[in-house]
Amino acid sequence: MEERAVVFVIDDDAATREALESLVRSVGLDVQSFGSTREFLQSKRPDAPGCLVLDVRLPGTSGLDFQHELASSDIHLPIVFITAYGDIPMTVRAMRAGAVEFLSKPFRGQDLLDAIQLAINRGRARRDDAVLFAALRGRYESLTTRERDVMALVVTGLLNKQIAGKLNVSEVTVKVHRGHVMRKMRAASVAELVRMADKLGISTP
What is the C-alpha separation between 121 and 49, in angstroms, rounded? Predict the structure, then answer.
């Protein structure tokens, strides 16, 4: 069953927050709203897929600065910016930093809902990728030091004989370790092992 998404709204205008809450709930999505970025950071947020609807102009930290702050804190919520004072440089900066959409007020409710859905989908994909990467990292960490050495050389395209020479072990030993690596990493082919090594950022010893 798909996790229920949550839309977080940060806007210092209470009337705007209420209107956005009503709009988001009208399509069956959960929503939590905040009057400031501080309120958002101090809140206990559910560990669920979602997105952030963020006003660009806020007291204290601006929306664009907060976008950077979130990224630096490793908080990866897709952001939909809304503003009554947008300009092209501001839009470019937000989009280059990964924003999903930048909407100028007044905007159509459907445009915001479309942007929110796109952001939620992007957030789900990121969470799925994170789960898969964690599983891949766990399999890699189950390898012994020697198996990791063998894997790092296998993915460069070296033959068992060449790997044996580099590691100063027998070719039979390399073959055994190579088999362990393929089994533990659940790689059906060397090509698949290469893709795994690339994702893990493994360098040649």
Answer: 9
Q: Cα 169 from chain centroid? A: 41
Burial class (CB in 10 A: 0-12, 13-18, 19+), 56: buried
**Which CATH entry fits the domain spanning 142-200: 3.30.1540.10, 3.40.1160.10, 1.10.10.10, 1.20.1260.10?**
1.10.10.10
Cα 167 to Cα 26: distance, rounded to the nearest angstrom: 63
In this predicted model, what pLDDT tens digit does every residue of 156-188 receive, in sequence order? 999 999 999 999 999 999 999 999 999 999 999
Q: What is the pLDDT of residues 67-106, one digit of tens each?
A: 999 988 888 899 999 988 766 777 788 888 888 999 988 8
- Confidence band, pLDDT 50/70/90 cuts, at residue 61: confident
Helical spans, DSSP H, in the chain: 14-25, 37-42, 63-72, 88-96, 109-141, 145-154, 160-167, 171-185, 190-200
Query: What is the reported pTM?
Result: 0.73
User: Where in the chain are all domains bearing CATH 3.40.50.2300?
Assistant: 6-129
